[in-house]
Write a structure and sequence with these properties.
This protein is of the alpha/beta class and 222 residues long. 37% of the residues lie in helices and 20% in strands. It has an 8-stranded mixed sheet, with helices on both faces. Helix 3 crosses helix 4.
């Protein structure tokens, strides 16, 4: 099991996060929360990654707040400063892991998926990114600018970031000379979240998990 700790942002401030250590010399992964906040489900992903051999850290972007309704989650996400989260909280998490790990990747879900793309664009210390059903505005983070290995997981029945958006992301990266690995699933948005039975798809989640682990093993190995 992991632990709650504080790490330092580039501006010198502290951010709390949930960290699970896979041991000395193992690769690291920054895990970015859904719009609900740093809840038990996100922490379980951190622990699963550590069990798979990746030290993982999930920054608490909402500073201890966790939403219980979609309206509350939407309000919290709308109030989040995405630039500050990317250039300070996520950058600090990368630095924390880089002190322990030769290579560091990033993954995130929904809002965290959008921030995964932002991190892939803006944080050059990263070595790979795995995005789950989230895309930021191109004015903030243009996927065409991603230079590191990138894997994306998108749902065909997603009403937020559906096939059209996934296709546009892939096309932009291909046009820029990148080679994104994009996977599409016959599922709903948030199909990976086992705490939401109305959308969770066990088969798709397991396949996406296996693909993610294989991707990180390939690109984060020293």
């Amino acid at each position: 099991m992991g632990q709650t700790l504080d790490f330092t942002r580039p501006d010198g401030a502290s951010t709390r996060g949930y960290f699970s250590d896979a041991g000395a010399g193992r690769p690291g992964i920054v895990v970015i929360q859904e719009w609900w906040g740093l809840n038990d489900q996100v922490c379980s992903v951190v622990d699963r990654l550590a069990q798979a051999g990746f030290s993982a850290l999930a920054p608490d972007l909402y500073r201890g707040r966790v939403a219980s309704t979609a309206d509350e989650a939407s309000h919290m996400m709308t109030g989040l400063d995405f630039a500050d989260a990317t250039h300070q909280d996520l950058a600090g998490a990368v630095t924390f892991l880089r002190a322990r790990c030769a290579k560091v990747g990033v993954t995130g879900f929904c809002m965290g998926g959008a921030l995964t793309i932002a991190a892939a664009v803006h944080l050059p210390a990263l070595s790979g990114a795995v995005c789950f059903y989230g895309i930021p505005p191109a004015t903030f983070a243009d996927p065409a600018l991603i230079k590191i290995p990138f894997q994306g997981h998108f749902a065909n029945r997603d009403k937020h970031w559906g096939p059209d958006q996934a296709n546009a992301l892939e096309a932009a990266m291909l046009a820029a000379g990148a080679a994104p690995e994009i996977h599409r699933y016959d599922a709903e948005h948030a199909f990976f979240n086992q705490t939401r039975p109305e959308v969770y798809d066990a088969a798709c989640a397991q396949l996406a998990w296996e693909r993610s682990l294989a991707f990180f093993t390939q690109h984060l190995s020293a």
